[in-house]
């Protein structure tokens, strides 16, 4: 519960900061405001990118979207942790003597199931039974010879309690056998024989959880950023500001600046969300950070960036062919099909813990790789060189897509009226610019 | 060297339509030039071509004898026919952004944006969105965007359209002022009376090619001779109806407006009028720009 309070406080603080910032923007004058500069990109591209960043940061949609993502991530981390917290302690009532070595054995049994054990001594069996009925203890051990539970069949720790009863029985048997201390020591330190698996080890639940949360984030963020790009380009065309802009810079500069600006915001937002997830998971001791999860997080960020870079050009070109909201639906839907297919297949693979041939194929196709490859990483079903090959294919495809999109954008962005058919946008005519 | 825009042989087809047909004209710095033509004559296409916004089938455009490039175009100011601003962006930020795209520093762009907003009476609207402004004020902001980088050449497509008299006066004043400071101004308009008052010269095009150009004075006094004659006692100007080579264009209150063929001497007309009665008025008349326009485009 305390974590929910913490998250609520964080959300309230973030909203207050956003409101304050907005009020500051409104009250400041033009002459006192600082120009937003990108230190690493100069010229027209940098100016366009800086405008995109500033306008997105100011937009209510961005602030609400970021808060929503943080809330979703917080819920994904905290809710399982809260659930885990309820079952983490097995409360053992003790009547009479319970030797130290048997307490240690019980603690080990409980720990193997991922829980903790606490011991409470009761003077009489009647008092211990009363505690059991009130739910103050989960079981009672009477003179290390008998185990009493409230309702055996429905006890959530039934398997652990059965193990405890078994171990107490073995301890009694060993005592009756009157073994020498050396023989007893050998038995007490006995360990299981090694187990060899014919298949790779199953993925730990922690990695699966990270993978699923990551896939949901990638899908949501790519949809959001792609929509930004599409609508941003469409609005420049419909408001006719495009003609003023292209009188000062080339279409490829405007397009690159827009893709870069939104990309920076996207990566910053993703980094914020992942950083928030890491801090929160660490503070609540979430299992999301165990095992191969950190590697999975790096993979998620990398593929989010690669996915955005690939899709942003496509959506920008699509935006240049439209100038009304109703036209947007017609072009956006076909473009989102590969993303949706990749998402469904990858999510199914992550949940099943099995990397099918289909998801392995999708991991090498640039439109679906941003979802399928992180899923394979989460399943530990991909080698580093296969990962690198997929990245290389994606980068090469992005280069080709960018060139194609730039040509479509250049030909369609100044054509107003009805939606520009793709074949018209690609039509080549031997013309020259006025020189 | 005087700044000069030279347009030569511009040709552009849209399908089977010839939008520009070997169009040529010059524009010198320090002049306000009206760019006239009927709807669909090719004015907007020409302006777009100057800014490299469309590809041409042929022709050249030079500035100071050199081919136009992107850097040079950034020293021009442009106001397109369909006004273009980000509706939901703050006005001050928008002007600063456009100024920076014209190679201004952030500080200079902000300072000039504020100055022009003050000039247009919009200083208190810098932190408002463009969409909150009236049409006329949006037009003023659009003009500010074209002016704030102190351009060497201003190309304005229908800058007076939709403005009230006060708005027209403000923009006219600014255009004349810029020309006096050495800027070349080319603007299109269908408000020919305003153009006549504002421009020193005009370029008239039709069907994508030049039909006439020159100073407003030269065009007004060139071409067929026009007379205004009033003969007392002849309110319908019947005396002029039988004159060979003379066309009555209008009769108002006994005052006849006559258009003379090239081979007709005005002395012949004067004698005919005197023989009809006492001549109360006899004067040569300049052509109005609207008449020049109509004669050139019909």
Fill in the keyword field for this structure.
heterodimer; A: 435 residues; mainly alpha; D-Maltodextrin-Binding Protein, domain 2; 2 domains; four-stranded mixed β-sheet; B: 298 residues; alpha/beta; Rossmann fold; Alpha-Beta Plaits; six-stranded mixed β-sheet; four-stranded antiparallel β-sheet; 10 helices; elongated
Question: What is the secondary structure topology, with strand pairs?
Answer:
The complex is a heterodimer of chains A (435) and B (298).
Chain A: H1 2-27, H2 43-58, H3 60-86, E1 89-95, H4 100-112, E2 116-122, H5 125-134, E3 139-142, E4 146-148, H6 158-177, H7 181-188, H8 205-238, H9 241-246, H10 251-284, H11 293-320, H12 325-352, H13 357-362, H14 369-378, H15 384-412, H16 422-426
Parallel strand pairs in A: 1-2, 1-3
Antiparallel strand pairs in A: 3-4
Chain B: E1 4-14, E2 17-28, E3 32-36, H1 43-50, E4 58-63, E5 66-67, H2 70-73, E6 76-79, H3 91-101, H4 106-119, H5 135-147, E7 153-157, H6 165-180, E8 184-188, H7 192-198, E9 201-206, E10 209-215, H8 216-221, E11 225-231, E12 246-252, E13 255-260, H9 266-276, E14 279-284, H10 289-297
Parallel strand pairs in B: 3-8, 3-9, 6-7, 7-8
Antiparallel strand pairs in B: 1-2, 1-4, 4-5, 9-10, 11-13, 11-14, 12-13
Put the structure in a nutshell.
With 435 residues, chain A is mainly α. Chain A has 16 helices and four strands. Chain A folds into two domains: 2-17 and 40-81 and 204-426, no CATH class; 88-156, Periplasmic binding protein-like II (D-Maltodextrin-Binding Protein, domain 2, 3-Layer(aba) Sandwich).
What does this structure look like?
The complex is a heterodimer of chains A (435) and B (298). With 435 residues, chain A is mainly alpha-helical. Chain A folds into two domains: 2-17 and 40-81 and 204-426, no CATH class; 88-156, D-Maltodextrin-Binding Protein, domain 2 (3-Layer(aba) Sandwich). Helix content of chain A is 69%, strand content 5%. The radius of gyration of chain A is 30 Å and the shape is elongated. Chain B is α/β, with parallel strands linked by helices and 298 residues long. Chain B starts with a strand and ends with a helix. The chains are: A mainly alpha (435), B alpha/beta (298). At the A-B interface, helix 1, helix 2 and helix 9 of A face helix 1, strand 4, helix 3 and helix 4 of B.
